[in-house]
Model the fold of this input.
Amino acid sequence: MSPLLEVDGLKKHFPIHTGVFSRTSGQVYAVDGISFHIDRGETLGLVGESGCGKSTAGRTLLKLLEPTGGKIRVRGEDITDLDQDRMLPYRRQMQMIYQDPYASLNPRMSAGDIVGEPLIIHRVGTPGERRERVAGLFERVGLRPELTRAYPHEFSGGQRQRIGIARALALSPELIVGDEPVSALDVSIQAQIINLLMDLQNEYQLSYLFVAHDLAVVEHISDRVAVMYLGRIVEMTDKTSLFETPLHPYTEALLSAVPIPKYGARDRKRVILTGDVPSPINPPPGCHFHTRCPYAMARCRHKAPLLREIQPGHWASCHLHDAGVRFPLAKPGSE
Done:
């Protein structure tokens, strides 16, 4: 059985226009050739620092942004070059939950109209059936059905995000992209929303691409995790392998900054990266991470490492594996 979603060499570059005549003077390499797949009922966590291209990758694979290069396949069918009309059937199967529950809801529409709008656009059911569907979705996400007549300003942040989840569920999609859906919420509310998403996944056999920078949240909800740095995926494996035995120096640094006692990170040596993240307008040659990597070698500065399978099911892009260096580099308790 083919994966629900396959992304192969996906790129999204934004042109930089300058001057009176808006000439193109450069490119922002937001997403620079990433590949992954998501199986039915699976959650892939996509993590990395702010500005690494996570959200752009999510929006591009949904065709909310047109890709610059690469391929996007849904159930084995190539949707990369489809126009808006031919994309409409796929829109029903792929939905998004946005990061900001305050900016993602139209303040001029009632909550019920917001959740029911996708049903109208796709001409699903009669007006009565749509009202019944919306009321059922409100109950399913933990909101009282009578709140369908209220407006977004009458809800708290957590309630607004529940409305966003109900809207995403309206068309019974197979894939939902969560663009940091809990980062703007209080910690106690985050747990409620995460548990709701996991319950909905079990109930409806949903697949998630969960974009986040909070590793503890990703560890809780994901089956596999992909780590991005400056537009590229540098490591990808199941969550247990990633947290126990990271195979890329950048992943190791991320994990050392966020202690997760379950995986013994309390005892892991702290890895402090020097310098700032390079600009995606002018990324470094070779391995993008070599300017901040404490283990960089000469080849890292001019040759980009390929993302390859280092251990069964564990992919990483690092020249250290070619040199026979053993991972993890900062062993627990080392100084």
Residues 331-335 have pLDDT under 50 and may be disordered. The longest helix spans residues 187-204. The chain has two domains: 5-244, 245-335.
